[in-house]
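step: validate -> pass
step: tokenize input -> pass
step: predict -> running
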Amino acid sequence: MLASLLLPLPLLCPQSTVYVPDHHPTIQDALYAVTSGDTIIVRAGTYYEAGIDFLGKDVLLTSEEGAARTTIDGMSSNSVVEFHSGESPAAVLDGFTITNGKKWDGGGVAVLADLNGNASSPTIQNCVIEYNIGDGGGGGMNIAGGSSSLVRNCLIQHNTTTHYHGAGVVIFDSTPVFEQCTIRNNVAAGQGGAIQVWNSGSFLYLNGCILQDNTPSNIERTGMTGATGVLAEYSLCQGDQLKFWFGTGCIDDDALFAAGPNGDAYLSHLAAGQPADSPCIDAGDPAVAPGGSTRTDGFSDTGLVDLGYHHPPRDLLLSISNLVAGALTTIEVTGNDPGDAVLVGYSVFGGGPINSPFGPVFLTPPYVPLPALTADPQGKAALTAPVPPAGAGRSVWLHALNQTLGMLTNPLAEVIQ
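step: predict -> pass
step: emit ->
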């Protein structure tokens, strides 16, 4: 099955995907090394780095195992991640916990214009932005300089300001969009516990979000008059039903959070064993497809999309063992439901990525699909395959898809021993 591993490829051939710390010891080192269009995959762990700079490069910086297992700690010395060189929406920060940052504006993430006034508008998704400090404002995020950033499926919580406004997010002269985000338990010394919007050139749009338990309020504005600058739709905005921006599909209620495997920002579900259903269940925009899970038992969101941050559903884990030349290797995908259909593919040409309906697949064509698998009663799908005797020292990339759930696993990049 792995016969094509006999191709005489060098161990470190030119590639569009690099791993941290395998190929570069730090995230910043990897960003220096790559070019626009490349992908950086960060292994699970905690990385103590501050002021991580995308350097104007439109790259995908993603974690291998998600925000619950991959943390960037800013050591209270700067913004944790910065975009200030005109990055486009193709510059993507995906799947990290961003914490312990500290700066005047934007302790966690700072999005600014470049020196010529060109806006930076990165995409920030699937991140947990928590326990950051804005000495001025924007403990969690500062979005400024004409940015039109998309912030999608992020949990922004427990951020603070020391002096001013917008503990979760502060916005200056920008038009960001927030989709499926939960912004809660942020405390501002001034106004806007969740978000502060500054200047008449700004416009904030929220869809599918939860704003709750922010102090002293959720959203406030500065430099605006009348009903301008903010619109929320299909969102839970606690205590805000009389605000002008409380739009179509919005509800004013308690989200009923529940504690689960990765914290207490899940939604209460009768089906998962909680005493009541959250009002956020099936309350989202009918035009938005569900994805991920709001349930403590990890089952996928179905029907109409739930409001707020979605955790990765279940824990689909691809692993490979005994990858030794001349031996039998075992490839496993765990975390499936019994009977699920699972596909595994591999490439010896690199780690992609290539686009698919399920997200980026980290295999460079031509890749090889292995025989279709069916998950056993324990949710495991496995196979064994011979490794060519001449394969020692060569690289192989693997990725898997649960066809039943429509979910990709973690990708793998391994070297044959």
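step: describe -> Residues 97 and 316 are 19 Å apart (CA to CA).
step: cleanup -> pass
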